[in-house]
Amino acid sequence: MSERWNALFDAAEQLARARALDEVVDVVRKTARNVIDAQGVTFVVREGDHCHYIAEDAIAPLWAGRSFSLSECVPGWVMLHGEPAIIPDVRADPRVPKDFYRGTFVESVVMMPVRAGADEAAIGAYWSEPGAPDDTTVELIGMLARYVGAAIANVALQDSFELLNRTAAAVAVERDLDTIVQMVTDAGVELTGAEFGAFFYNEVDEKGERYTLYSLSGAPREAFARFPMPRNTEVFAPTFTGTGVVRSDNIRLDPRYGKSAPYHGMPEGHLPVTSYLAVPVKSRSGEVHGGLFFGHHQEARFTADHETALLGIAGHAAIAIDNARLNQATEAEIRARRAAEAELRYLNASLEHRIAERTAEIQAQADRLAESERHFRMLVEGVSDYAIYLLDPQGNITNWNPGAERIKGYNADEILGRNFSTFYTEEDREAGIPARALEIATRTGRYESEGWRIRKDGSQLWVSAVIDAIRDKDGQLVGFAKITRDLTEKREIEEQLRQSQKMEAVGQLTGGIAHDFNNLLTIITGNIDIALRMLENPADGGRVRRAIGNAMKGAERASALTQRLLAFSRRQPLAPKPLDLDKVVAGLSDLLKRSLGELIHLEVVSSPGLWPVEADPNQLESALVNLAVNARDAIVDSGTLTIETANAYLDADYAAAHAEVPPGNYVVIAVSDTGVGMPRDVLARVFEPFFTTKEVGHGTGLGLSQVYGFVKQSGGHVNVYSEEGCGTTVKIYLPRFTGASIEDAPVETAYEPRSARGEAVLVVEDDAEVRAFSADVLRDAGYQVLEAGDGAAALRILERRNQRVDLLFTDVVMPGLSGRELSDRARQLRPNLKVLYTSGYTRNAIVHGGRLDPGVELLPKPFTSRSLMLRVRDLLDARTGKRLLLIEDDPAVRTLAIEALRSAGYLSEPAANAAEGLGRLRAAQGGYDAVVIATGPSEKDSDALLKEIRGQWADLPVLITGAASPSAESAQAVVRLVRPYTVQSIIDGLKRLGIT
Q: pTM for the whole thing?
């Protein structure tokens, strides 16, 4: 036993003399067996989160040179917990990783922690049989571990002293500041074992302004590049103010930490810091140069010895920085003194020469200025096409050239000293235009304008004028320079050219209209003549109807031509609605397929998420049909027509290239064909009215001009791309609509409503034949009709107190009072009077910006008897309180029920099926007093329709005919009748709903 203790004491003496870690390890390896009496000895040090087996002395080396995670090895457990691991049986202890020990001789283990300041290590012993270590052996191993810890600490202290001395010696002779701080930072990281360190230090630039720089060690510069410099927060303040050292085993738990915006703690992406040590660097004068900062992601890595050593390094660094800055200041002063001396010698040597040169330069400048003034005076006085003169700050004339005398008629003696407003018209002077011109020129530096001016003899001339402000070198206004050019003759020539172009365009337009209308009038008059002759022979009734039908078709073509002319001129009254272009194209596809024929394939490319637009649906469909027909005619034999929709953004560059297009969001519909394409000369004229490449008699030449006018009137943009042999693409851009949601269009029916109560309609029309036609249609429909040829006659009828008038049907454009003026005065007499306008061209009376004014009802000319009856009935039925919607699929029953309900005083409108009924409800926005559902015996279908109605109009009364009992009511405002029903049973049911 005494031999083992003696061996231990010998080992202690050898460890005390060790000057390096290798010596400590060597002592352990050589003497441990004698002390511990084990089959194997190991030495393990901690490197971050791993155990590193730096040496082993065993039967066979086990893990020498290898590293394991702290959590998967016995030395790691010892270092994490700071206590020994005595394991009599490695196979029974949960701390032992069985896979590591399988196949080794080890059956029992003793592992002891080694504490050496912040450094951690462990020594251990292995035995080949279980339960081998006794208490004395464990005690001996523990004492050896303590001796090893003291030896490691002693080695670290010796290393620290050597490092400190080397650093002090190095920075003492260094004069470059960047090199000094980098050396100090590197030494601090090596001395403390920190993962990284930084030296933030203050610097003063040439302007005397302070800014902060930094050096790094143990981390790349990019790790701090995106973070701001440290500030005097609670954690950093002691370092930057020089009041003390900050050392923390876990800075994140420090009460001074995490109080500063914007991070309130560790910024995202910052190197992880747990252990923290910061030391101020202060000069002998007390000035704080900066601070040394060190960090480690593990806890408790810095000790008081580290703090003491860093204070020593900081002191050496402060002295070195003072010396470096003193050296820099001395060198800068020497350089400045030498430069000043050199400059003074140069000035003394060249002063007389420079004075002579400067005198000659001033004289040359004066000569050039005089010559420039002479040339300028000659130039100004030689200009006769421009009036060039000067004004003082008040606008009084101070200089006058011959051109001004020729243009204005005044000589210099007559005009100098007078105000330049003399040349303005009396109206312009009263409007303050001369003063405003000087104000703008003073504020912006220049004023440009064109306008009429007055010569001395009183005659007028059209001029272009520019006024430039003149300021002295201090920016003070000293006057104005004014240049005036006479553009009277040029303006007259341009006006003549515009008039000539206008007359040429009118001639072309008139010729086209005359040609097409003469053709149409030939059709109309010829067929009417045939009909008149055939009326004399009753047997020719079929030919009479055919002739009248042909005349009607000619009239319809004339109407279409008129609408195209209005569309081209952007005078067509539009009734825009929110639209989904994909639905519009889908609805037209069947019609387009029939129009294109079997040899042309129609391809429709829709766009999910398409924005809505606001446009007149009828005119949009007409435009698409026009484009499709043009494409069909351009395709030889077979080909493809593609209609594609998409969202688009027209940017500022596109708007700059197309002046009429504002930038923004649009919906584009592109119509492309694989036809013959167009040459450039045809493409340049494609939107001209009556221009066509088709043979005579094929097309009016108004198709594309109609499309152009409609798109422009809708606030959009149209462009054509074509190349010979490669087809044509027409792109229509309509502005994105951001208003209310899109509603489905109502379903059209053949319903022709009549008067139920003999309402009175006042027809006002200056054209006698149109007035007679309108009056006959309304009389045949059961209305009382009053007629007036102009607005004055209509007002006289309305002034009769006992004369009933329920609706005013008036033309818009009439001599004397217009239709809008008549309506305004009529409503003063009868505030509740309903008004329906009609017109072929409104002249902006009820249409502004291409759209009907709010609340205006218009029936465009020409109109049919059915369209007139429908619009009159709709207006009279609006808000009457007895409006019914009857949904019945049997036509005979539907007609009978409508007539019977009318006889009972109800205003009934028919629908042939559920889809048509829902369409009418949406179009009227639920504006019915009740809905009668009699679509068939299926109670399931009726309930489905009722659910649709309730989804949008929760309180609308509904009467359903079916198989249920008459008393069965499924919900509020619902009455059910047994089928077959009678009109009286419907009336009784409506009374139960409160509709009488």
A: 0.31
